[in-house]
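User: Let's play a game. I give you a shape written as tokens, and you guess the letters that built it. Ready? Here's round one.
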């Protein structure tokens, strides 16, 4: 991994300023026909997005110094300044504040846009499941996320209807931290009815998107979001998920990323869950106590210390009934 660049994620750019790494990265991504993976690979090889940009655009002009005036660079600067005005941080993977765990995955976004408090989150656990969750699934998601939040574990989810929103709500209600990984640009709210929840997360936790700020939802954006959510978290808990659920997609990514996958016994009613349960790194649990014990073990495996994990939180009657 090349040496990390200077942190200018919350700074505006002057037209006369020299190009920084995040501007160069955005300019590369804004080029017609740009491929994220190719740009990421070449940037890692050269150790600098600026060097890649100069190499690509410098060949198109007799005056390489005029790269700063190219439309892609001008557009990138305007985009960054617009983000700063809206309280959005722009982080390239060369930035020291870029989420560390995302650097470990093949689907690493070259740039992410964030609102809220950026923290290392080594204890982040994803809680995901069906948009059309059952009443028991919603209770289970809420209780799991509440329990995690009370243990100082960051609850990571996707701000979708159903299990995701229940998990976010529970983390906020217990005073914990939650991170929402979006399937749209960060300036959008999807679904619309979660606008207040999204704003509350921005104020008390973190919103993160790999897409340009005004990007709409698409068929491919949500699976891409699932990959990033899996990469951000130390493990994934799937509460409820049918055969074609996005949570199933995240479960697959979690195993590909070498992240533990945890789900309740009830999920074995699905063929995909029965197949996944035979694989290493999958933990099927019977109750809340087993769930928490498994999470604690996975957190300790993923971090050098677990001193700030609170483990002596007693189960409530509701958790015992529907965990």
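Assistant: Ready! My guess for every position:
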């Amino acid at each position: 991994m090349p040496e990390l660049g200077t942190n200018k994620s919350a700074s505006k750019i002057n037209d006369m300023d020299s190009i920084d790494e995040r501007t160069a990265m955005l300019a590369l991504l804004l080029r017609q026909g740009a491929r994220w993976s190719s740009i990421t690979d070449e940037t890692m090889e050269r150790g600098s997005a600026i060097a890649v940009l100069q190499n690509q655009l410098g060949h198109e002009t007799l005056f390489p110094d005029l790269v700063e005036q190219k439309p892609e660079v001008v557009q990138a600067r305007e985009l960054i300044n617009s983000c700063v005005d809206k309280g959005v941080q722009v982080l390239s993977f060369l930035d020291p504040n870029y989420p560390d765990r995302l650097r470990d995955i093949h689907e690493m976004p070259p740039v992410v846009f964030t609102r809220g408090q950026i923290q290392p989150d080594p204890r982040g656990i994803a809680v995901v499941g069906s948009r059309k969750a059952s009443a028991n699934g919603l209770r289970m998601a809420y209780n799991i996320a509440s329990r995690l939040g009370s243990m100082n574990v960051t609850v990571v989810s996707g701000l979708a209807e159903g299990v995701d929103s229940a998990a976010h709500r529970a983390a906020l209600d217990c005073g914990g931290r939650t991170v929402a990984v979006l399937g749209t640009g960060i300036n959008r709210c999807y679904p619309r009815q979660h606008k207040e929840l999204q704003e509350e997360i921005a104020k008390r936790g973190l919103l993160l998107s790999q897409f340009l700020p005004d990007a709409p939802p698409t068929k491919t954006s949500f699976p891409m979001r699932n990959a990033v959510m899996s990469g951000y978290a130390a493990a994934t808990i799937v509460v409820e998920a049918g055969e074609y659920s996005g949570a199933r997609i995240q479960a697959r990514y979690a195993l590909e990323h070498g992240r533990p996958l945890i789900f309740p016994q009830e999920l074995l009613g699905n063929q995909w869950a029965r197949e996944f349960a035979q694989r290493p790194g999958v933990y099927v649990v019977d109750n809340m106590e087993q769930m928490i014990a498994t999470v604690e073990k996975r957190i300790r495996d993923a971090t050098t210390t677990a001193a700030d994990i609170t483990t002596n939180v007693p189960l409530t009657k509701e958790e015992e009934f529907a965990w």
